[in-house]
TrEMBL record:
<dbReference type="GO" id="GO:0022857">
    <property type="term" value="F:transmembrane transporter activity"/>
</dbReference>
<dbReference type="InterPro" id="IPR020846">
    <property type="entry name" value="MFS_dom"/>
</dbReference>
<feature type="domain" description="Major facilitator superfamily (MFS) profile">
    <location>
        <begin position="27"/>
        <end position="208"/>
    </location>
</feature>
<keyword id="KW-0472">Membrane</keyword>
<feature type="transmembrane region" description="Helical">
    <location>
        <begin position="158"/>
        <end position="177"/>
    </location>
</feature>
<dbReference type="InterPro" id="IPR005829">
    <property type="entry name" value="Sugar_transporter_CS"/>
</dbReference>
<dbReference type="Pfam" id="PF07690">
    <property type="entry name" value="MFS_1"/>
</dbReference>
<protein>
    <recommendedName>
        <fullName>Major facilitator superfamily (MFS) profile domain-containing protein</fullName>
    </recommendedName>
</protein>
<keyword id="KW-0812">Transmembrane</keyword>
<dbReference type="InterPro" id="IPR036259">
    <property type="entry name" value="MFS_trans_sf"/>
</dbReference>
<dbReference type="InterPro" id="IPR011701">
    <property type="entry name" value="MFS"/>
</dbReference>
<dbReference type="GO" id="GO:0016020">
    <property type="term" value="C:membrane"/>
</dbReference>
<keyword id="KW-1133">Transmembrane helix</keyword>
<feature type="transmembrane region" description="Helical">
    <location>
        <begin position="24"/>
        <end position="46"/>
    </location>
</feature>
């Protein structure tokens, strides 16, 4: 009669054997591309941060380093303790000197043009910021399906190699994207082909 061995943590560790140099080297080699890939993931925090913006007021924008005119040209949002983003006081006449007498503080009009805190940003408009997250999550969904098929057919090492390379290439191109369309395409491709890096590396380190 075969004696049944009690299953506990000690017996499991005894069966697996010691954590040797091979396991440590494998862990370090997999940690390096995963660490680099995380920078692209965390970059979303800075790429899609909320932009401060206000109305552009013709006749006042030439007053460099002097923003005192904002108090009588643009109403204040008391909740945010900042200037309104989408409306300004109606001008009584064409603004030339940007003085209080040229504005009506009893009437507001919608903004026609805007001035942003960071000029030239690819995500100046609110819907563009939201779209960045949507496209990224869509790419990650594709990555889970694509990486699983690739791992089953060619192995986890191939999946890790392709994901690490894709994350590097598409991430660098995205960093220097000249326009919003290119930026979004690279964002999707980087997530779709590089998003499977972490789960592939995790499986490789835990099963090898």
């Amino acid at each position: 009669m075969v004696e049944k061995k009690e299953i506990n943590l000690d017996s499991v560790l005894e069966s697996l054997g010691p954590y040797g140099r091979y396991n440590l080297l494998n862990f370090v080699l997999l940690l390096f591309p995963v660490l680099l890939s995380s920078f692209y993931e965390c970059g979303f925090i800075f790429e899609a941060q909320a932009q401060m913006y206000r109305c552009k007021v013709d006749g006042c924008e030439l007053r460099v380093n002097d923003t005192s005119w904002i108090q009588y040209a643009i109403p204040t949002n008391l909740e945010k303790n900042n200037s309104e983003s989408c409306e300004r006081f109606a001008p009584l006449k064409p603004v030339e000197q940007c003085v209080p007498e040229e504005f009506s503080t009893n009437k507001t009009i919608p903004c026609e043009e805007f001035v942003y805190e960071l000029e030239g940003s690819l995500v100046e408009e609110e819907w563009r910021r939201a779209l960045v997250g949507t496209v990224h999550n869509s790419g990650m969904f594709v990555a889970m399906l694509f990486t699983g098929v690739l791992s089953d057919r060619y192995g986890r090492k191939a999946a890790v190699g392709l994901a690490a390379t894709s994350s590097c290439v598409f991430g660098l191109i995205r960093a220097f994207a000249p326009n919003f369309t290119t930026y979004m395409v690279m964002h999707f491709l980087e997530a779709a082909f590089g998003g499977g890096l972490y789960p592939s590396a995790y499986l490789s380190s835990s099963l090898d």
